[in-house]
Amino acid sequence: MSAEADLRELICTLAKSLYDRGLTGGSSGNISARTGDGGLLVTPTGSSFGRLDPARLSLFDSKGIHVGGDKPTKEMPLHSAFYETRSTAGAVVHLHSCHAVALSMLEGVDPDNFLPPLTPYAIMKLGKVKLLPVFLPGDPAMGDAVRGLAGKRSAVMLANHGPVVAGKDVEAACYAIEELEDTARLALLTHGLPRRPLSDAQINDIVTRFDVDWE
Ligand SMILES: O=C(CO)COP(=O)(O)O
Ligand SMILES: [Zn+2]
């Protein structure tokens, strides 16, 4: 199989795994991933992660022209903003994952650091997660908000909507967004309890040792 055919299969396999575990339901969520020649494979608008067809993924060439497959996700401006501002981005994943969305609705969440520092892995894989305001789905202003972060954040949380994470490839982006959802779940499970988060010294240790962008 060609590298592009492999990537098509991988996107659909990972999407189905996310769907089967309830990480995004119905026709919510979208994935994009760079092809070897600088193009982009993107999940079609209105498609369900549970039954994506590898042959129908939207294909863009390296100039950003739609050259094949179904109409792409309406969140293209959001995905494009990550590629434009983060040269290391090889894939972007967006979900409507329940616990992250619930956490985004709570008063008192820090918009600059959406997740409380509960586990080392969340810090290693996500850095600081920026909470963005409420936008209508498909609003190009989301792309402007991501551009405003100047490539400093790999993960953002769209308030009352869902997380968006860029990674070096589609597997890395999926693993990181799963970490975001799991951490939001832990935050909710421990909300209001006498919680013991990681200390500043522990966070600094993780940030230094694993070269995490923690601006
Ligand atoms: O998550 C979604 C909108 O935010 C799904 O939209 P698409 O079906 O256009 O990808
Ligand atoms: Zn969405």
From TrEMBL:
EC numbers: 4.1.1.104
Cofactor: Zn(2+)
TM helices/strands, residue ranges: none
GO molecular function: aldehyde-lyase activity; metal ion binding
Any one of the GO BP annotations: pentose catabolic process
Keywords assigned by UniProt, alphabetized: Carbohydrate metabolism, Lyase, Metal-binding, Zinc
Top-rank EC class of the record's enzyme: lyase
Limits of the Class II aldolase/adducin N-terminal domain: 9-188
Residues spanning the signal sequence: none
A matching Pfam family: Aldolase_II
InterPro entries: Aldolase_class_II_sugar_metab, Aldolase_II/adducin_N, Aldolase_II/adducin_N_sf, OtnC
Keyword field contains Metal-binding: yes
UniProt entry tagged with the keyword Metal-binding: yes
Catalytic reaction list: 3-dehydro-4-O-phospho-L-erythronate + H(+) = dihydroxyacetone phosphate + CO2; 3-dehydro-4-O-phospho-D-erythronate + H(+) = dihydroxyacetone phosphate + CO2
UniProt GO cellular component terms: cytosol
Role of this protein: Catalyzes the decarboxylation of 3-oxo-tetronate 4-phosphate to dihydroxyacetone phosphate (DHAP) and CO(2).
PANTHER family documented for this protein: 3-OXO-TETRONATE 4-PHOSPHATE DECARBOXYLASE-RELATED, FUCULOSE PHOSPHATE ALDOLASE
Family: Belongs to the aldolase class II family. AraD/FucA subfamily.
Name assigned to this protein: 3-oxo-tetronate 4-phosphate decarboxylase
Source organism (scientific name): Pseudosulfitobacter pseudonitzschiae
Upper lineage: Bacteria, Pseudomonadati, Pseudomonadota, Alphaproteobacteria, Rhodobacterales
